[in-house]
Amino acid sequence: MPSILVTGACGQIGSELVPALRARYGHDAVVATDLEGRIEGSHLEGPLRALDCTHIREIEHVVRHHAIEVIYHLAGLLSAVAEARPRAAWDVNMGGLYRILEVAREHGASVFFPSSIGAFGPSTPHDATPQVTIQRPNTIYGITKLSGELLCDYYAQQYGLDTRGLRLPGIISHVAPPGGGTTDYAVDMFHHAVEGGRYTCFLRGDSCLDMMYMPDALRAMMALMDADRERLEHRNAYNITAMSFTPQRLADEIRKHISEFHIDYEVDPVRQAIADSWPNSLDDSAARQEWGWRPQWDIETMTRDMLEHVRNKRAGS
Ligand code: SER
User: Fold this and answer.
1) In which band, very low, low, confident or very high, does the pLDDT at 43 lie, cut at 50, 70 and 90?
2) pLDDT in tens, 123-147
3) CA 289, CA 291: separation in Å to the nearest integer?
4) Are 235 and 92 part of one and the same domain?
5) Does residue 289 lie in a domain region?
6) Within this chain, do residues 192 and 93 fall inside the same structural domain, yes or no?
7) Ligand 1 pocket: which of 141, 172, 213 to mutate (most atoms <8 Å of CB)?
8) Is 187 in the same domain as 74?
């Protein structure tokens, strides 16, 4: 059983990845960490401890104390927050990753890095975006994600460190809210549809982006970390996708279940510019070939399941 560290454990992905890893490897095998202010009030149980990834001594202490062998480094600022706080984005997204890699190198731990569709930019081919293509992101978020991919590759080549990454699309989920991403409109839309039947979207109705339901994202992360190292030609980082749609298309899908649902648009120029610079749809054939990636959820099944969970949550609160 590997001993696993998850950073950013109280965030949207960590809140579900930690229980999934614990179900698989045992409760005590997974050390969940996040900033002190975020672990207070978290639904996660122990081992749960405070860790600021910009402090290398704190990382070293946790890795040594728990004899960590695998690190899922999820701590980071999402795209819209990063644009509002570029210095913090650099410190956390780049500085945190660099320190994680340094400690992993010392201790021989493997590292999962969540790259993003944000690692692409306006000059990237937007349709069926290839695995290997032009990457000139023009957001601080995208710059940290692309630099993160390169840094992970560097540690793999120079030090033989087992680093692996995914270019995650927008993640749709109902357990923990996302925090300041451009793709978060999709999650917001479900909550507003159930609560009041109306949603004002901050992106244009025709903005097409890749998306994925959380169960697929969790399977993808664990499958990549399980994969045979020899087969991973594009280890940092793989394009993956499950569906790609526009706000208008998602609203139409929701309307199949809530016929009176109404959407209107108040475009936020900052987030619209971010969305416009990202692909419409990724080609994920390298992930399919090298480690058997296959999504299980599409827009129809995801929408049905999301609405059921959001309704249940609302009924229970
Ligand atoms: N969901 C992320 C964001 O919008 C994309 O990686 O920031």
Assistant:
1) confident
2) 999 999 999 999 999 999 999 999 9
3) 6
4) yes
5) no
6) no
7) 141
8) no
